[in-house]
Design a protein that fits this description.
Helices cover about 40% and strands about 15% of the residues. With about 300 residues, it is of the alpha+beta class.
């Protein structure tokens, strides 16, 4: 999520970029255990244990499987084993739960021999997302299947026009984000301050639209400023942390054009916009300030990835 966090739930636009290096694959097969309750499904992630595979996220994947079987009339009761291999760090604001759900949908489609439309895939991923996170805007379910940067607005998407050169540097703070806590914190703030929600959504909408224009018109400096402004909006709402703020400041000090937290907040990742020639120094400063790992995404090199 480049811009639009939290406000997207209230109908504001969001800008979403695919990260081709971060992938999830899944495979499904009939269980070899020979026993088990009807409709039993097991999920394993042997190469990258995922905290999100327990609790609500795992419940979401089970609900997804039930909905898949019901939708396609394959409720035959045979137990299924699903194996998930994920390169996306869990609970960092990078869409890992939606990506896992999408991979599982395609694995089940392969097992049962069904060709799915994009609409059917989205609906099934949303089933899991709504269980894992409560009411979901759908932005993650759309974004993890994107082949190009997208503008997301009220459930629909269109491809973004990219007129800027530059690199997005994503830095992992090493701290698990707390999306549900962040959502509850923001909602509580809205309830205690009259007009707070409207002011937040209006400001977020304005920044996102200005960023979209800058992205299309080749204004990297203006785009970077909007990123930092959006971070300030989320920080003022109490959704950042000292470690995340330190990473944002480190990126800016190193010459990044802008930086912000990405995702639900209270931990997770930072995304910084930098010119290619400054990327090495920005990455160095981020790591020196506590980033556990980094990834880069070229603004004009995102299109065409599945």
């Amino acid at each position: 999520m480049l811009l639009g966090e939290h406000a997207v739930v209230y109908g504001a636009p969001a800008l979403v970029f695919p990260v081709p290096r971060l992938t999830v694959t899944a495979g499904a097969r009939w269980s070899r255990r020979g026993t088990g309750a009807p409709d039993e499904v097991s999920f394993t992630a042997p190469h990258a244990p995922l905290p999100s595979m327990t609790g609500q996220a795992s419940d979401g994947l089970r609900r997804l499987t039930t909905e898949f079987r019901a939708a396609f009339g394959v409720d035959d009761g045979r137990p299924v084993d699903v194996r998930i291999d994920a390169a996306i760090p869990s609970a960092r604001g990078l869409g890992s739960s939606a990506a896992c759900a999408r991979a599982v949908v395609h694995a089940l489609a392969g097992l049962y021999g069904h060709d799915l439309t994009e609409s059917e895939t989205f609906d099934l991923v949303q089933t899991a997302e709504n269980v894992a996170h409560g009411r979901s805007s759908g932005v993650d379910a759309r974004g993890v299947g994107a082949s190009s940067p997208l503008l997301f607005l009220r459930g629909g998407t269109r491809e973004l026009t990219i007129g800027c050169h530059g690199l997005l540097v994503i830095a992992d703070s090493g701290v698990v984000g707390r999306t549900k806590d962040a959502v509850d914190l923001l909602r509580e703030g809205f309830q205690h301050h009259e007009g707070a929600r409207e002011r937040f959504v209006d400001r977020a909408t304005r920044l996102t639209e200005e960023a979209r224009s800058a992205l299309a018109e080749g204004g990297p400096e203006a785009l970077g400023e909007r990123l930092t402004d959006y971070h300030d909006l989320l920080r003022a709402a109490g959704l950042s942390t000292k470690r995340v703020d330190a990473l944002v400041e480190a990126a800016l000090t190193a010459g990044a054009l802008g930086a912000k937290i990405t995702g639900g907040g209270l931990g997770g990742c930072v995304v910084a916009l930098t010119r290619p020639e400054r990327a090495g120094e920005v990455i160095r400063q981020l790591r020196a300030s506590g980033a556990t790992r980094t990834w880069t995404v070229p603004l004009r090199g995102c299109a065409g990835h599945a």
